[in-house]
Amino acid sequence: MEQLIEDIVQSVRPDQRTLIAISGHGAAGKSTLAEKLRERLGDINLLHTDPYITDSQLRKQTILTYQHDGTTHQYKMTACHPAAHHLLSLERDVRMIREGIGFYTIDVPYLERTWIDPEKPITIIEGMSVAFLDLSSFDQSIYLYTDGETEFKRRSHRDIQERGMELDYLHASHVERRLQYELFMHPYRHYFQTIVNTSKDEIQIEKTAHEER
């Protein structure tokens, strides 16, 4: 991961407006990468996209039907589905950043609003919603993912310890969430310049921006 961070840092020109996209499923390492880049790049904008995800109560009432290995599944819409995101709002805000227009991020109970400063040339936009955007607006794009076992291990540690979820419920929801991820979100990774597999806490770079040149 350190080499990836170094490559990104070296490619950024502080005198030019630069937008960096980071996406992937939950617990893939998005926030960790974004924070490490912010430490290296200094005083930059960081836009977390969780507030652009549709309210969980609405998603619970939206039941999806999908096929996997010949079996029909029905389950509530998770954030792995493109329709679970306010993409038009996020696209507008990305465009504002590109054009040098400042704004406050969405104010939600779990994330205090911040000012996206047009005087800061570097902005990182991080979160699941980014996967479903047109990436041509970004100068760098990185996608992270893990296998299902690693995702569940990381989710269970976070959701049980920090959010008080029951293990049985978490496991049942994880199976369907992972199926929706594989069907609806994972294919979007190919649009990113860099793809990183962080399964089993190992870093495997499957594609780099250099390969696209």
TrEMBL record:
Entry-linked Pfam families: PRK (PF00485)
Superkingdom of the organism of origin: Bacteria
Record GO terms (molecular function): ATP binding; kinase activity
UniProt-listed InterPro entries: P-loop_NTPase, PRK/URK
SUPFAM superfamilies per record: P-loop containing nucleoside triphosphate hydrolases (SSF52540)
Residues of the Phosphoribulokinase/uridine kinase domain: 19-198
Gene3D superfamilies listed in its UniProt record: P-loop containing nucleotide triphosphate hydrolases
Protein name according to UniProt: Phosphoribulokinase/uridine kinase
Organism, scientific name: Exiguobacterium sp. (strain ATCC BAA-1283 / AT1b)
